[in-house]
């Protein structure tokens, strides 16, 4: 049932181009001209804020989506982890839309947060992989991510499908708010449709990632850096790595490095810099150079142009396809997952059943 792969995690990483294309087909049709086809009830007219709540990897998907709702739709977006959200007395209004993201749809903290907001907001929407789950049933509207059953404890294909559905929701919000002309919407949808092909290309770097991972496996601390929507990807890269390889890892917003974490840098600490060619590339590179000046071992993830511009003096490099910057987080999920996977393999840990973790956390 692992389809020729050694682990469910490897199979699920490899499935991403196909399941993402399935989700896109479901929500944008299969004709050459894509069109948004989201459930009727998903209407952002009159909504003045989205509040997104989730746990773990699903919460990093909402963190990426916060950038999308704000940048594409001009809609204020708030995020929180479920265990904090429901105890902090969040200010909610009848003009807010609450969005709960959960692969299993059974995460106790997320479900409790959903019950807490009900009747306090305009609409409760869930983004789930299991359409029959408690979270789906208790929300006003449930959008399936269509990733198929995810068995590996570390979430991979569910994450990219969560991002896909959240991207489409941000586009719908932009259209509803008059922020996106039909032509611009089509262009955005077409660039999303190109993503499964790019994920495929990223999967082809699995062998080079395995080589790098042999070295990473010797580290006791690893940092991930990114800016903008690559910041939550740095957090996700670090979470994936620590949960299956048991190596201590942290993700930071690149610009925060100088406010403390730079004290950790020495020649033993690998620093993984996620730097697609976006508007913040130069700033990310200058943060990377601060790391190199302190002898940190930098692994630079970028496209060929970015590596040519900034690769000098780095310890290692990984070339990814050039990508429409707004969707770069979807692409960079793949190397983040493969780095964690191969590092865990090099360490000999149980990647599908990491210690102390359960696939679905149904207790608070
Ligand atoms: C990380 C991971 C967890 C889950 C989290 C939420 O790889 O799998 O962090 O993302 O427990 O689970 P769901 O999405 O089922 O609510």
TrEMBL record:
The record's keywords, sorted A to Z, are: Aminotransferase, Cytoplasm, Glutamine amidotransferase, Repeat, Transferase
Q: What is its EC number?
A: 2.6.1.16
Q: Which GO terms describe its molecular function?
A: glutamine-fructose-6-phosphate transaminase (isomerizing) activity
Reactions catalysed, as given in the entry: D-fructose 6-phosphate + L-glutamine = D-glucosamine 6-phosphate + L-glutamate
Judging by the UniProt lineage, the source's domain of life is Bacteria
Active site (record annotation) = 359
SIS domain mapped to chain residues? 32-179, 212-354
Q: Where in the cell is it found?
A: Cytoplasm
**Can you state the subunit structure given in the record?**
Homodimer.
According to its UniProt entry, what is the function of this protein?
Answer: Catalyzes the first step in hexosamine metabolism, converting fructose-6P into glucosamine-6P using glutamine as a nitrogen source.
Q: What is this protein called?
A: Glutamine--fructose-6-phosphate aminotransferase [isomerizing]
Q: Which organism is it from?
A: Pseudogemmobacter faecipullorum
Encoded by which gene? glmS
């Amino acid at each position: 049932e692992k389809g020729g792969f050694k682990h469910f995690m490897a199979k699920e990483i490899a499935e991403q181009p196909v399941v993402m294309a399935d989700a896109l087909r479901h929500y944008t049709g299969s004709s050459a001209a894509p069109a948004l086809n989201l459930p009727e009830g998903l209407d952002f007219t009159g909504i003045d804020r989205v509040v997104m709540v989730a746990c773990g990897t699903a919460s990093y998907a909402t963190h990426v989506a916060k950038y999308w709702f704000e940048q594409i739709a001009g809609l204020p977006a708030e995020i929180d982890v479920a265990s904090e959200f429901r105890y902090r007395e969040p200010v909610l209004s009848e003009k807010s839309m609450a969005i709960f993201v959960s692969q299993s749809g059974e995460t106790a903290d997320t479900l409790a947060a959903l019950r807490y907001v009900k009747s306090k907001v305009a609409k409760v929407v869930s983004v789930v992989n299991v359409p029959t789950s408690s979270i789906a049933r208790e929300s006003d509207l449930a959008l399936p991510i269509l990733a198929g059953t995810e068995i590996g404890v570390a979430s991979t294909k569910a994450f990219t499908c969560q991002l896909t559905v959240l991207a489409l929701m941000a586009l719908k919000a932009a259209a509803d708010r008059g922020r996106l002309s039909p032509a611009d919407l089509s262009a955005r949808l077409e660039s999303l449709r190109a993503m499964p092909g790019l994920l495929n290309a990223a999967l082809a770097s699995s062998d080079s990632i395995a080589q790098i991972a042999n070295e990473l496996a010797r580290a006791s601390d690893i940092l991930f850096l990114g800016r903008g929507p690559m910041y939550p990807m740095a957090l996700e890269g670090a979470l994936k790595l620590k949960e299956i390889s048991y190596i201590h890892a942290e993700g930071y917003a690149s610009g925060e490095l100088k406010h403390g974490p730079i004290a950790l840098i020495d020649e033993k600490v690998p620093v993984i810099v996620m730097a697609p060619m976006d508007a913040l590339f130069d700033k990310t590179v200058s943060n990377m150079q601060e790391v190199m000046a302190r002898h940190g071992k930098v692994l630079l993830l970028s496209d060929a142009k970015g590596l040519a511009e900034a690769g000098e003096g780095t310890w290692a490099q990984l070339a990814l396809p050039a990508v429409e910057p707004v969707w770069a987080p979807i692409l960079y999920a793949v190397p983040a997952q493969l780095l964690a996977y191969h590092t865990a393999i090099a360490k000999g840990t149980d990647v599908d059943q990491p210690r102390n973790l359960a696939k679905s956390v149904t207790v608070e």
